[in-house]
Description:
- The structure is a single chain.
- This protein folds into two domains: 1-13 and 162-275, Jelly Rolls (Sandwich); 21-160, Jelly Rolls, CATH 2.60.120.10.
- It is 4% helix and 41% strand.
- The chain contains one helix and 24 strands.
- The strands form five sheets. The protein has a seven-stranded antiparallel β-sheet, with no helix packed on it. A six-stranded antiparallel β-sheet has the order 3-8-5-6-23-24, with no helix packed on it. A five-stranded antiparallel β-sheet has the order 2-9-4-7-10, with no helix packed on it.
- The radius of gyration is 20 Å and the shape is globular.
- It starts with a strand and ends with a strand.
Amino acid sequence: MKNPVLQTFPLSSPWQTLDPFLFSVYHLDHYPKGNGQMGPDVSLLEGRSLGSDFNPNADWRMYHGQTIPGFPYHPHRGFETITIVNKGFCDHSDSLGAAGRFGQGDVQWMTAGRGVQHSEMFPLLKDEEENPLELFQIWLNLPKASKFVDPHFKMLWNEDIPIVEEENAKIKLVAGTYKDITPLSPAPDSWAADPENEVAVWNIHVNANSEYTLPKAGSSVNRVLYFYDGDEIQIGDKKINPNFGIVLNPTEEVNIKIGSETAHFMLLQGKPIGEPVAKYGPFVMNTQEEIQKAMEEYRLTQFGGWPWSHPDNVHDKEKGRFALYPDGNLEEKPFH
């Protein structure tokens, strides 16, 4: 058997990715009790650069938020965001008039396409206990033919997402078929919408002191396993510490021996798009000329403007999980 590990690399923020993915970020914040206004019940006057609080050594961060943690309105064009919230909540608002509150395992899939503004805030809903947040955001590229599709906002609710339970492992299928288990459909214009592209986003949890075998994929895909929490693992004769990315040979099964703690992985896999990538912040096109045109269009149109009262819009504190779509359709879900 060939060595399934092609390369390892330490995880920084954002995580290094391979085509068709652009990058991925992992947020783990141990937020304190809320102050009744969905912000933290502590002073923000000392030790933080409000509006740009990204200290990796802190227990929690405000990011670009001033009173509530999160990311006030900002534009996207030419790619997709897949936002997985395992703990805590995210409040979404966008320039299409769509909105939502999701968390407790929910996933939001948003195709920016020709352009959209949105905000992503992390309201602290609990005032009597702490408000931990665990969130992944994965940027999946769009091919040139899909850069200007209409923006699309889709929710994958936790209770609907397939979770495969094996003897020692649980595998949450955000995208990509696992053995014979089919996931929910991705956004319609996504690179993931064509099964031939073999796009997979799997959140994998494996019990301590056990083994797990990751099934092989097709030969034409890029495949990276992110070991983001746990104790040392072993693949073949290679020992790997947590907070490492592992580039895998997709044509080989991967047997993983787990150390003394439950191991947590995120797998990102897909056939590469194989087109030039030009990036400037939240704009992803194929050439620098297209980036300049995107920036100019945003200055002129604001991608439809901002229909909300505040750039850091959050929803009523008592509101549950919900999604309001641009066509007015409303989905509501209870808290777990």
